[in-house]
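To close the section, here is one more complete example, presented without commentary so you can practise reading it yourself. The ligand is 6-O-phosphono-beta-D-glucopyranose.
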Amino acid sequence: MSQNPKLESSILIIFGITGDLAKRKVLPAIYRLCKDNLLPEGTKIIGISRREVSKDEILDTVNLCVSEENNVCDPDIIHKLSSWLEMFKLDPLVDEDYINLSHYLSSIEQAAGKCMDRLFYLSIPPQVYGPIITSLGKHGLNSSCEHQKAVTRLLVEKPFGYDITSAEELINETEKVFSEEQIFRIDHYLAKETAQNILKFRRHNPVFSSQWDAKHISRIHVIAKEKIGIENRVNFYENVGAMRDLIQSHLMQLLALTAMDMPQELTSDEVHSKKYEFLASLIPQTVREEVLNSVIRGQYDSYKEEVNNPHSATETFVSMILKSNNPTWKNCIFQLTTGKSLDEKATIIQVYFGDSNPNILTFRIQPDEGIDINLIIEQPGFIHNLRTVKMNFSYSQDFDDSHDAYERVLVDAIRGDKLLFATKKEILTSWHLLQPILNSWQTNNDDLRIYKSGSQGPAITILNDTVSDKLN
Ligand code: BG6
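Output:
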């Protein structure tokens, strides 16, 4: 984004402004956007909370400047933010409060002398989306003022459902009030710089684009390792686990970007259509035997104690193998691996060109964003030994302009660009694929492997060796 997009001034209405996500991600992203002059004068930010909270309380207590040296904020930017931010007390179950909100938004527009785009950001747990979305519709807050001269959008966070049924319910309930066009479902991994680059890289580098199929690629492995554990999110995580938390959303999306057919144009519609086609081509494992052979789940050793549940079978680690019925990918192995409390934080996508001594192209999504590839060369000297060396590109060395995923999420939602957001078809297809595995896990916990915190997780060699042979 070195050439900044020109945005219209709009009203950003944040439900859950006092919550963890708003404090950690959304507000610091707004600070950065403000600092980089991406948000125009006239922008309004309305912080919704149940209890009376002053804007100073928000501005004083939230660490807005995490990206700045020594966390020190620029006073001019804080001043600007303060003039844009207003707090609004609203009880999600009280009709009167929505009526007041509607009047309040109209008064802002009257003062500005124009209809403004409105973006409702539900930075709250999805379990409480339902009543809020219904009430927004009931009080006409799903459309904008004066015959749609401006647009109203809804920005929502994952998890989109707990299983296929609840995902369908959530999608249906939301659709009663907002059209698919208006709904922006955040998958913040799609907004990470390197994730965005995947399609462009594939398209514009003929040396790779001409070889992007199973004839040349034997395996694609998407890995998201985390060093952190569940960080006090006991209730959330006990009900969710690694499969729902990361595989269902972030990792499936990254895999789809890596393996989808390349569309004619990289427009939002075409990209979503190809992504969906790829996800729909993945073959579900419906029989327990298949699940045991192709999915490994684990739990870190101190987890049960941490959640105070000696019987917990929630997985904090998953590694799984998938295949596609698309002829382009015949016999290619797709592997997804994620885990908490591991030895390092690393999100990478490895693309294996060749079988026995592959050239591995690696997209480093985070940290140290970049791309590398290993090459086989002859070691200098008189003995003809082969060695593997790495060619490496690092974003931080070549560019100094970088934006956090949440900055991009906000910019794209404000300008109505849906490319980086997950569609309902993608979400439901991903659930269809994973639901049989979750069902199988419910029948028996024998396959849950306990691993040491800070380690590399349970051994996944069974998948690497046996299953990939079997699947071939
Ligand atoms: C969230 C998950 O979606 O992504 C968390 O709910 C996880 O469990 C987080 O820690 C990781 O995001 P990032 O951007 O820090 O890799």
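Once you have examined the tokens, check your reading against these statements. Residues 188, 226, 245 surround 6-O-phosphono-beta-D-glucopyranose (CB under 6 Å). The two ends are 43 Å apart (CA to CA).
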